[in-house]
Amino acid sequence: MAGFSDDRRNETSHKRRRTPASTNKSSGDTEGKNKRTATLMDLDVLDCSICFDTLTVPIFQCDNGHVACSTCCKKLKSKCGTCSLPTKSRNRAMERVLELLKVPCENAEFGCSESVSYAEMSRHLERCVFSQRPCPFSGCGCGFTGSYEDLVEHSVSKHDDTLYEFECGESVFIYPKVGERVVLKEKNTGEGGGVGRVLVVVECFETPQGRIFSASCVGPMFPGFMRLSYSFTLRSSSGDGLCFESSAKSVREVSGEPPSEHFMFVPSYMCPDYKLRICITWTNPFRSRRTTTS
Ligand SMILES: [Zn+2]
Ligand SMILES: [Zn+2]
Ligand SMILES: [Zn+2]
Ligand SMILES: [Zn+2]
After folding, report:
1. Residues 263-280: pLDDT tens digits?
2. Looking at the record, which segments are called Disordered (predicted)?
3. Of the candidates 3, 26, 32, 161, which lies 20 to 30 Å from 242 by C-alpha distance?
């Protein structure tokens, strides 16, 4: 449903609202008889001191004990953001705390009733159907944020004019412009076919040497279940061609930044006069859901 999330938009600040976690266990705990439990009054202590995001394993620290998440460590080239000392050591004690701490899903207010290990929270949020996802259409400024289901409805009702449709295993010509996104929605082909609830976003970035194309899936993906694979086929006006295959990473929000891996690179001399096709397929080691089979 469109619109209703506009009220929520302001709540989705960089820093999420937290509920203090109680680690008290009920009597049903088998080995917990002699275990002591505790309540953590403020979950903010488990945030990275640099980006303020939730710390995830591995956790690094400098000699002064300032902790940093692995993303910040990489970004700052293992230099502490507070005191500039190298952040080379792991903080195993903190990592253990994260693993043992169970907290309610951050989407509890939207209906998720799961309790998740703190260390697993970000992984859970990626596939939690209650996670709030911003509208992936670029430049529309609609400001919509909603659950994945709402996002699919919103894409159809508000962005139908620019929304592409795809059928599993069939090629679609797309025309992504630099800095813009192409959003494709799986066609609802009925029985045994597409369920029409998958959104794939293709992004295009300009670099000095050429263009970068990548695709991601804005929605929950369940590990061990289905994988969304895609291929790009590009043919330039000079007759040269490129083919690229990868699987679409499941994201909550399209980052808008050039990816560091899993992208197709098109050298400048082939740009911008080319035709680009994308072919998206579901792959599953146990079962096939290709709509191309009758
Ligand atoms: Zn960080
Ligand atoms: Zn430091
Ligand atoms: Zn959840
Ligand atoms: Zn929108």
Report:
1. 999 999 998 889 999 999
2. 1-34
3. 161
Ligand 4 centroid from CA 180, angstroms:
14
Ligand closest to 80 (CA) is: 2
* Structure confidence by residue, pLDDT tens digits, 200-233: 999 999 999 999 999 999 877 655 567 889 999 9
Residue 293 CA to ligand 1 centre (angstroms):
46
* Number of Cβ atoms within 10 Å of the Cβ of 24: 10
Tokens of 78: 């293992």
Among the bound ligands, the one closest to the CA of 153: 4
Residues with CB under 5 A from ligand 4 (ion): 135, 137, 140, 142, 144
- Distance, CA 54 to ligand 2 centroid (Å)? 18
Ligand 2 midpoint to CA 89 (Å): 11
Q: What is the mean pLDDT of the chain?
A: 82
CA neighbor of 138 nearest in space, from 201, 206, 230:
201
pLDDT at 233 (0 to 100): 96
